[in-house]
């Protein structure tokens, strides 16, 4: 008997432009994490900050040291001056040069921050791996007690760690939830190279509730493993749902007419109507016999349906 799926409300997922923006570092013990925890899992202190913030701190510290060196050089020049004029000139020159250095540093704070970030990430590879391993242990423990929390942890980790093990764990957890159109769901980051029934089921479900996520990669996946999917209990339904999602754009009909042709008679009415309108608007396209099959099915089943009369 199939386990009942659980309803849930996922924690908001904050997308970042760069993967490293998910990383946080403990100011005290230099432990790395991708999770949203308040306390450091290593030392227990509330000292976690984004790595970009840490890089900015290091950049400002480096620039501060440079200004301090400039002031020390100025002081040394003053101390070794032998006349009042030399003292005044050294002092004025040192203050001027320090001021120019400060002005230049303000202009260079962003490039210096990026340089410090690259240096931080490059020198901390071992600690980052150790932190990710700790996060994975946390996720494994969370899955046993709270599948939703476990999924949310894995989702954060997947931003940094790209492997099929984490992708498959996410897919398996998603298949235990009741998915809705309003949920922040993804597909392409979860794609794996080998056949996995849970992934095929997930693709089919997304093809029903979030068709915009069905793109070339997903269509090619179901085509590559079409025989295996058809051996599944709901295999034909999955293939038909993906074909139905594909007809939302002419690009996909142009690319996969044979695929859509094989499942056109399994399309629900709304998806067949979308395909019918697409065919009518492109009279010069035959799509390897798809046009003829659409016309035949229309005459057999929908000829007198009023929704098909006003297709423009």
Explain what the structure shows.
The protein is built from 14 helices and three strands. A three-stranded antiparallel beta sheet has the order 2-1-3. The radius of gyration is 30 Å and the shape is elongated. The two termini are 46 Å apart. The model has no long low-confidence stretch (mean pLDDT 88).
Summed up, what is this model?
Helices cover about 60% and strands about 5% of the residues. It has 14 helices and 3 strands.
Overall pLDDT metric: 88
Distance between the termini: 46 Å
Biggest sheet architecture: 3 strands, antiparallel
What portion of the residues fall into strands of 2 or more residues?
Answer: under 5%
Task: Describe the SSE topology.
Layout: E1 24-26, E2 32-33, E3 48-50, H1 51-79, H2 84-107, H3 109-123, H4 125-145, H5 147-157, H6 164-174, H7 197-209, H8 216-224, H9 226-230, H10 235-246, H11 250-255, H12 257-263, H13 269-281, H14 290-302
